[in-house]
Every structure is written in C-alpha cells, then in structure tokens.
C-alpha cells in the first residue's frame, strides 16, 4: 500500500504515526500556524477591505458604510453587521442558497467577537444623536475553505476595520438633509485588537493549532480562543473531548504569542501600504 | 421587505452616503477630440490584464482575473452527480452561478441573487456551453461559480474569460477556450473594454449611436459562441464593433495560453517532486 492510499484508507492511523513524532503530515510543529498572508485595501469599491490567506484558506472582508437611524434605546450607537458567507465557490461541501448552519454560527461568532472585544466604539459611529449613525456592513467572503476559517475571518475583519475611512457628513441646517464630502475621509478609530487562534483536539489528548480541513474532519473537538491585546476575550469550545486545565493554559499561552505575531503582521502590512 | 433570519440583521433601513453627495457628477467627455479616453487609453486599447489559474485548493479547477480594477474569481466543481431531480439527460449538464460580492460595486449589493445576476448567469452559461464536450460526462453535471470581487466594468466579458480558464484548469474537455470582450459604442467611436464609467447607460445618452456589445469568441475555431448588444446602434457600427471585438479577443488569447502553459508546468514540477 502506497503512502497516498494509506492516507485515504486509514486517515486516523496515518495522522497518529506523524503525531507520535510531534509533527504533522504537512511538516508543521503542533504549535505552528500556516503561513499567514495579509493584504489590506485590495478592493477600492469597499470603504475598507482585507484579504487573508492562512495556508490555502482564503477569506476576503469588504466593509460598506451606510447611513441609518439609530435605535431609540441607544441613540448614540451605530451598527456593525458582520456576515460570513460560505459560498459553494470555496468548497464542494457547500450548496448555493441561503446560508447553512455553519455559516450562521460563524456569523454569530463574529458578532460576539465584535461586541465583546469592543474593538470599535459604537458611539464613534454617531453623526447626530438620535437621528443619524453609520452602519458598517462587514461581509466576510470565504474564497477557499481549507480549515480554520474562523481565525482567518477574525483577522480579515480586524484588518478591514483598520482600513475603513469614512467620508465626512455634515447636516444642512435648512433642509436637515445630510451632505456627503467624499474628498475628506477620516479613519475609524480602533480601540482593541481581537485575535483568534483555533486548536483541534486529536484522539482526545493531542492538541494542535490551526487545523486544515482534513485535520478538522479528524478532530474529536475544536477550541477557539480570542484574545484582545493581553486579555482573554472569548473562549469557544462547543463540546468535543474534555480537556485538562493545564492543556487549556498551554493554549492560552500560545494564543497570546499569536496575538503579538498578528499585531506585528498588521503593523508591517499597513506600513508597506503607506509607502 | 422580508427579513432574512439566517443572517445577522442590521437596521431596517439604511442609505448609501453616495445618495447625498454634494457635487453632481460633472459630465466629462468620454473621449477627448484626439481620441484619448479618461484613463489615458486609446479607443482600441485593452486594460492591463492578469490571469492566474489554480487559485482555489478545494476546487477541481479555478481561475482569477484582473482586468484593470475589475477583479473576478471563478471555481469549477465536477463532474458530479445531479443533485436536484432535474430532467434526465444522457448529455452532461453545465450550471453557472454569477454573483457580485456585496462590496464589489459603488452601491452595496444584496446577498440574494438579483435579476441582473441571474441574467448574467444565463448569458455566461450560453457563452460557455458550445465550447464544452458535454457528451464526455453523461448524467453528471459541472458547476461553475463566478464571484465578482470588484466591478469596474466589463464584468460579464471578464467572467466568460475567467470561467473558460477555470474549465481548462479543471481538465474538463473543451473544444476551445472562450474569450469574452465587450465594447461601448459612443457616437462615432467604439471603445474597447469599457470601465464602469464608460459602460452603457440608456438614460444619459441622447446620441444616435449609444450602446454596448459583448461577445464570447472561440479563437481556434474562429467562431462566436455568444453575442449580446444593448442600446441603439446602426448596423454598420455594430459590424465594426464586432470585428474590433474579435481583434481584441485575439490579443487576449496569447495571455490565456501563456497562463495555462505555466500552470501546467507548475503542476508537472509539483508531481515530479
């Protein structure tokens, strides 16, 4: 039996053989992310955009800003509306039509990340209190589904938000209509940096970071940790294998390292665009 | 408006800030008297183009195309079994889905496919079908998905080119590649590969000749697989535009061949290793 047949016929055994040596079939260590590539401001029709590649996994985020009336209970707050699209384009397992369960869960997760990390102060989206606020439609489009789309989505959203430049709006006092000045654009202030890292649990005890689609299918559990700078923001472990506390602590440490890596990557990318 | 419960909802109503811009877009001349367009091109010039195949790892075949600022990605899956209970056919089936990303145009687009996107899906399908050897995959179907990431004009033409490259990358047997190209006819000028500002707009045109033309051209068979024209065009002009279109397609053809050639080379190198 050749190695390729073995991989297809007995994938779990195949992985076990590698993991015994603390390495994965693609040559990565257990704590190693795939190569992360970031491109900011790639779609000029959007008010903010970013493309993230995590190995093969590709996610594009485009943000469109529109004007609307705020809710009565929160007259000073704008809106951020993140939606994840897992289109049939990115994987043979998705069908066209309305978003499936996985896409809905991911959209909700992105909303929670935005709300809990407070990366954008919703009051900074206010134009006139009780009358006019910004709504940021953040659409996350998966272009290639090769596992760990969550981490790619969080990074794409953060990078795209950092890229947002809103046109200035003034209110005409006579007509009370808003007037847009597209030439004067202001960047959106970002107050914190949520960074997510996802771990797959294999055989109930081995943890490795940034699973590919193949590894996600073999995993007995998935855990996602979102950090904001040096604080924990969100831990998401929807069931799966139980973990020991020290395993979880290891994950937290790795997540904080990742947070530093990502903020360096974003800074470098923004610098390279400015020049 | 029906609410979409499967997506995160925003406010009930929102408006694009573009609706309140102060300066009305000043009508500039589309072509200056010496035949130079707004972006510095001559009438018959194409925009800079970039094509790459094999961009989506999960797909059987895929392609990405950039034509100026127009950016399109396309993936091909199959041949796979027919999912819905469609009519039985001994011939293979081809399906196309054309979609603009919500952020791809100056105004935000909706998630659901609108009528323009459905229309383009059908046009794309009809442009590609004559080139595909459907009898090679009986009782199965090949699905083509096209996503426009940024629209700066000639989106349909670019997607025809892109989809045909993706089909070739997927190894689906075809008689020929299909090259898309569009033209804008403005007064007595024929503009190749129009940008979004140059594209056909029936409301703002009062000239005798105003319209647009899109063709799908099969270069080695020297046949046209699809042709659509919009607007009011004199027959002489339509003929001229068509010859210009074919000429422009022949300019694109080497770029496509080169891209396919290098992708096959890469694949061979990868399998040797």
UniProtKB/TrEMBL annotation, chain A:
One of its GO terms (cellular component) is nuclear exosome (RNase complex). Keywords: Cytoplasm, Exosome, Nucleus, RNA-binding, rRNA processing. Its main location: cytoplasm. One of its GO terms (molecular function) is mRNA 3'-UTR AU-rich region binding. This is Ribosomal RNA-processing protein 43. It comes from Mytilus coruscus (Sea mussel). It is found in: Cytoplasm; Nucleus, Nucleolus. Belongs to the RNase PH family. Pfam families: RNase_PH, RNase_PH_C. Residues 32-167, 193-256 form the Exoribonuclease phosphorolytic domain. GO terms for biological process: exonucleolytic trimming to generate mature 3'-end of 5.8S rRNA from tricistronic rRNA transcript (SSU-rRNA, 5.8S rRNA, LSU-rRNA); nuclear mRNA surveillance; nuclear polyadenylation-dependent rRNA catabolic process; rRNA catabolic process; TRAMP-dependent tRNA surveillance pathway; U1 snRNA 3'-end processing; U4 snRNA 3'-end processing; U5 snRNA 3'-end processing.
Automatic annotation (TrEMBL), chain B:
One of its GO terms (cellular component) is cytoplasmic exosome (RNase complex). Residues 46-173 form the Exoribonuclease phosphorolytic domain. The keyword Nucleus applies. GO terms for biological process: nuclear mRNA surveillance; poly(A)-dependent snoRNA 3'-end processing; rRNA catabolic process; rRNA processing; U4 snRNA 3'-end processing. The keyword RNA-binding applies. Keywords: Cytoplasm, Exosome, Nucleus, RNA-binding, rRNA processing. SUPFAM superfamilies: Ribonuclease PH domain 2-like, Ribosomal protein S5 domain 2-like. Pfam families: RNase_PH. InterPro entries: ExoRNase_PH_dom1 (IPR001247), ExoRNase_PH_dom2_sf (IPR036345), PNPase/RNase_PH_dom_sf (IPR027408), Ribosomal_Su5_D2-typ_SF (IPR020568), RNase_PH (IPR050080). One of its GO terms (molecular function) is RNA binding. It is found in: Cytoplasm; Nucleus, Nucleolus. PANTHER family: EXOSOME COMPLEX COMPONENT, EXOSOME COMPLEX COMPONENT MTR3. Belongs to the RNase PH family. Component of the RNA exosome complex. Non-catalytic component of the RNA exosome complex which has 3'->5' exoribonuclease activity and participates in a multitude of cellular RNA processing and degradation events. This is Exosome complex component MTR3. It comes from Mytilus coruscus (Sea mussel).
